[in-house]
Design goal:
There is one protein chain. By secondary structure, the protein is α/β, with parallel strands linked by helices. Helix content is about 35%, strand content about 20%. The chain has 6 helices and 11 strands. The strands form 3 sheets. It has a 6-stranded mixed β-sheet, sandwiched between helices. A 3-stranded antiparallel β-sheet has the order 10-9-11, with helices on one face. The chain is globular.
Length: about 240
């Protein structure tokens, strides 16, 4: 029987989360989540993702959606702030399965070069609904700090893909599912520069347009995605 994974995407819409160095947490979390979702679906895992665009979908909506989906694992993907370095992972206090998942995720993501801040209980000022109110094995994962030198690990979509794939590998290791990474292929077809509507037939032109927009609008993060990867939310 196929395993099921719920992917919650941090922040979105009117809530950008942490904002620093020209990046918004909501944008970064979305790209990592989409890459993680694709990597899991490519090996046959059934997924549900809370959002696929920049809309508001807070924990009050994600919690019942995740519980209704009844996944084997639920993960809520975020980026951190406060000037620190590295990734960290939150679990229900004393939950052995979630502690194991947290440690596995931190190991896979820190292998990219990020510091490993380790597994931490979701309690006190770190009481997260997407951990404590989820019936399944749950995790809230902080990929990196938006306001520190961690920027070197997420300042391109290729690096965000690496984080998303690393999270997918960790989930698969926890579930006992063999992860087979598909070779990276140069996409063909139309390319969208997300946060505006232009579709371009050349990958190089799309990247150049994203770079131009990022230079003009320092408050946003524009990135390139093949149009055929934009898919509707599956409920």
């Amino acid at each position: 029987m196929s395993k099921k994974v719920y992917i919650g995407v941090g922040h979105g819409g009117a809530d950008p989360g942490a904002v620093a160095q020209g990046f918004r947490e909501s944008d970064l979390a979305l790209r990592v989540s989409l890459h993680c979702d694709k990597a899991l679906r490519d090996i046959g895992i059934i997924t549900m993702i809370s959002r696929i665009s920049d809309i508001s979908f807070p924990a009050a909506q994600k919690v019942p959606q995740a519980n209704a989906f009844n996944p084997d694992v639920s993960i809520d993907i975020h980026f951190n702030a406060g000037g620190g370095r590295g990734c960290e992972s939150f679990h229900k206090p004393g939950n052995a399965n979630e502690i194991r998942l947290s440690n596995i995720l931190c190991r896979h993501v820190s292998a990219l070069g990020l510091s490993n801040r380790g597994a931490k209980p979701s309690q006190g000022s770190f009481s997260f609904g997407m951990v404590l109110s989820i019936r399944a094995v749950a995790n809230l994962f902080e990929c990196a700090f938006v306001d520190s030198a961690d920027k070197q690990f997420f300042d391109t979509d290729e690096k965000l893909q690496s984080i998303g794939v690393a999270i997918a590998k960790g989930i698969c290791e926890y579930l006992g599912v063999t992860f087979t990474e598909k070779p990276v292929e140069k996409p063909a077809g139309l390319f969208a520069v997300v946060r505006q509507t232009t579709a371009l037939s050349s990958l190089e032109d799309a990247r150049a347009e994203a770079a131009r927009l990022n230079n003009v609008d320092k408050s946003s993060f524009f990135y390139v995605v093949p149009v055929d990867e934009i898919r509707p939310l599956r409920l």
